[in-house]
Amino acid sequence: MSDPVTALKGAKGTAGFATVTEIGPVGMITLRGDFANKAVVKAAVAASGMTFPEQRRCATQGDQGMAWMSPDEVLIMCPYAEVHDRLENLQTALAKHHALAVNVSDARAVFRVRSPKVREVVAKLAPVDMDEAAFTIGMFRRTRFAQVPAAFWMPEADVIQVVCFRSVAQYMFDILNNAAKTGSEVGHF
Amino acid sequence: MLTIHCPNCGVTAEETEFHAHGEAHLKRFGPGSSEDDFESYLFMRKNPKGVHFERWHHRYGCGKWFHVARCTMTLEVFGSYTGQTSVPPQQIIDTIQDRRPDWVPAQDQA
Amino acid sequence: MSTRLATPGRLIDTSQPMSFSFNGKKLRGYRGDTLASALLANDQMLMGRSFKYHRPRGVVASGAEEPNALVNLGREGRFEPNQRVTTTELFDGLEATSQNHWPSLEFDVGAINARLSRFLPAGFYYKMFMYPRSFWKHVYEPIIRHSAGLGKAPKERDVDTYEHFHAFCDVLVVGGGVAGLQAALTAGKAGARVILLEQTDHWGGRAPVDGGVVDGASVDNFVDETLKALQSMDNVQLRLRTMGAGVYDHGYALGYERLTDHAPGSAGPRHRLWRIRAAQIITATGAIERPLSFAGNDIPGVMLASAVRDYVVNYGVSVGDRTVVVTNNDNAYLTAIALKNSGLSVPVILDARVLPDDRGLVAQAKALGIRVMMGHGVSSVKGGKRVTGVAICSQAGEGAVLEEIACDAVAMSGGWSPVVHLWSHCGGKLRWDTTHACFSPDVDNPPKGADGMGFVTPAGAASGMFALDDVLHDAHAAAEGVITCLDMKLPKEVTSPVAERREESPMAPVWMMPHGASAKLRAKSWLDYQNDVKVSDVRLAAQEGFVSVEHAKRYTTLGMATDQGKLSNINGLATLAGALDQDIPSVGTTTFRPPYHPISLGAIGGEARAEIFQPLRRTPLHDWHEANGAVFEPVGQWRRPYAFTRGSESTHDAVMREVTNTREKLGLLDASTLGKIIVKGPDAGKFLDMMYTNMMSTLKPGKCRYGLMCSENGFLIDDGVVARIDEDTWLCHTTTGGAERIHAHMEEWLQTEWWDWQVYVANVTEQYAQIAVVGPNARQALERLGGMDVSKEALGFMDWADGTLGGFNCRVYRISFSGELSYEIAVDASHGQAFWDALMAVGADLGAMPYGTECLHILRAEKGFIMIGDETDGTVIPQDLGLNWAISKKKDDFIGKRAQERSHMTDPNRWKLVGLETLDGSTLPDGAYAVGEGTNENGQRNMIGRVTSTYHSPTLGRGIAMGLVHNGPDRMGEVLSFPGTDGKTYEAKIVDPVFYDKEGEKQNV
Fold it and tell me: ipTM > 0.85?
């Protein structure tokens, strides 16, 4: 097997007021199931190593995490190299239950945007209230960034992490850098 | 541009995150149905000036479908509710009747 | 003449001189000037020509309401027409040229129209250009096109950038005058998140020009203190140079920020479009002064009284040495007083009113020694390109001249109209205020939001309050009301400031000056300066039956174009009401539509231009394609290689080579764009039986089946190969454009119709790089990679298997869209490129070449395989395409089944799929229609079929095509005529749609 290659091979944009870095590859598993079923939740917790997230929240710790995607879907994140084993264990644990777990690690691109004004970068692209009081660390939001679907969260202050489809990685990288162009600071937050 | 509340993920967001899918609570007619029933299922749509029930899709968000009751004339929204129902819940009907006393639910119409 | 005064204006910084040019002439101004004030300071009163009569036009106003003074600004990549001089901040090096004239501003040939004006009344175009019909295309239209339009269109690409910004707040306050400042302060003190927008580059609006005392200090002081307080609040955001452009449903508002218009070339975007969601909006948008309708009121030098005052006080510019003031209200006296105090001459104030006593400003003016003539007005203004004097008459009469006074400027005031645009954009209603003779917001009928409650509150002059004290109280009260709506509390100690009251006499509405003006005077009394609409035109429209205000607007062009009648609307309505003998409120207003003032298309487009105009979807192999001669074609948002050209080879030659190579050796296709959807659950089989026309529940694990998907209308919407993965899991392939659509289609049925079925669906399209390995050498290539058995016995046609090839984990589907021995291999996308490289390496001496979508099309057309979007167009059912074999007869139901039983769907006369072969081997034109006997009721030849796919087949050395033909399958061998758009008629024979390897021997090896 070859070394995995991300969509943009770790591209980095540093010209603007935020640095935009493609990270990854990140291991990702989409799990769909009935979360009223304790066995499904238990399997998700075991596979992710994280507590089960509340509505529209995510818990991350280093390379692993779990995000709430919809009432019957979570996204489990882990080191890329571990995804096949974790998926297998998860599928084994869920064998007797109606659930669907699939590897989507390669279907995504992940960006890390860092800047004291990172909230402005998001506010230029997504119709989301980025006020400090309105969007806080631990929240997970699925929305659109300009013309493509995306999900994002703030793992720490001044940083957002954005997940989008792999095919539009270049577009996402370009719009993030464009929104962070020097001279376009808004001074709103 | 409307703001819509998605009852599935709890987000209240602007219309650009969503997609409207037309009239809600259509009853499907399949093989064996009469020409008239099938025609009305396939083609006949309500176009009320006032209270209307619609199906919406949170396309850029959680990806789920749901229903919205709103006024086509004033764009007032009476509420969003689950996509997994063939009739509007009582709570929505109560809200509408509270704000539109003259309105009569479709199933009660003569 | 107009000139710069010795006393500097309050906005001018004389330490920063600037040079600029107008029509090539070098001129000078200062920081703080608008282009309007700088031109006036240089005695450039003539700034443009009117649209219809090409009348000489000077500036009338000092703000966004200016109808006349529009110029071309900048050059090359920064050229822009129709820029208002009053809203253009002066900068060093500014270049402006006047528009709408030929050959020059001073001497304009088009001005002949003015001489002909009595032949060009309202509705002239409709009346004149009707007959004879044939004249329209060759005579009238070219003439109208030549003379139509304001300004020149830019020729070069815009060099600036633009962006959007999404902001959210509790209270959006539009307008940074004293009302807006006060409203923001009150709301801010209650703890609300406030955004305050001001369209100009300074705070305070017109109050500092008009003066006054607030809480014992000057109004300037009030502005400074309030601003300081607001700046210290974290919950308040202030934006200058940002216009509230529009108010829309559910508290959505647009702000239009002009960041670099005053400093072109500086870093950052030129304009930023603020997309604001506000729980409550306060419109503190002020008021606009109305002109008076008297003869010659459009001659350069006749201006709004407030504008004359603004130029003196704000910019230190006098518009004339001798200014006659004409008014129907007290406010214009401020202008006379300001001029007098600046050492300028005011020969007379003509006041249309007859007042019982002198008080307030009237008394003040008289005390300054200014002559005031009550009950008088202007009979006509003298002059051509510049005012030279006025003829005075009694307001009550018909215009008999009592006296002529020489002057070089006229300051007029017909009263004030609140700026109700933003209030009205989303449905706020208006009421007629008889005291001030204006429409003001009917606060009992505000625009309503998602909760059915009002979400806009007017404040200050925008709500019809004109005295400073009323303005401040109203603004405070507006904010208080808004705070209550938000369920917030205002601290008790927060109260409204108090301003000193001026004694004032009531205004008197004057819609025509003099009241009984003769037809001759009315024909020279302008209502709309930009569109050359006069009192006589509106009266004519009424006389000809255009009694609705919306009709009268279109018929006369009153209130159209770039100013949308900010000055002319109310005067026009009043004139129409007068002509119809109705009162003004019953005539009503035209509709106020956003934007308030024109905004740039760049701002609307935002970041979406050039590379990021729209997302382009790229496969994991995209870079390789790019580096290896790919000519791309768009397929939805995807970019797929159409063909891979080599050296100087043409695209057509490349396609021919790729087809031949794939048929004879080995072709590789990037099929990653095909949709891949996992469907899993105890009810997945039942669900797929509903989704597809075929039976999918009976498919055995390890097997593939080609499936068709229809809409509930019965029409074919997608196709693809379905693989059964295990007992309760299927993988469905969709077309390239279909992945998201079909995924959503499945979810919609599951979520809204069969929500009790146990099925989960996931779109895994982009998880995989999928490569089709096609051709007689395909198996050999895979065997060289090694790792799994790909023999006919182990992996037969329509089988699939998981395994490894060359060390890559993969899933191999033995399926064929080409008729050749073919494997489609899916590997994780992150390994896609490495796997492709491995295939190219082992295939090098087997003739491995990449092929593109056009080759794919030819291969499938040679085999008679249909393509969604070519053979289908949303009106085609599977039965039309001879695909009955793929429609299960055993199933009670599937999506589309009932529709396919409808009489029209079972009609034997439907056009059906056939192959078409030209008699001479040429290629049929795409989309050509076959013509039959006779003509239809429109005299057109009857059509009996059309071409859906057509290619030159290098395999067969001739043109091949598929088409839908009336009774096609029953007409084998018949020759049809296809007239082409090139004038030639093509003859083609109906044949079987499978042109190549009918028995399928090649794919079954």
Answer: yes
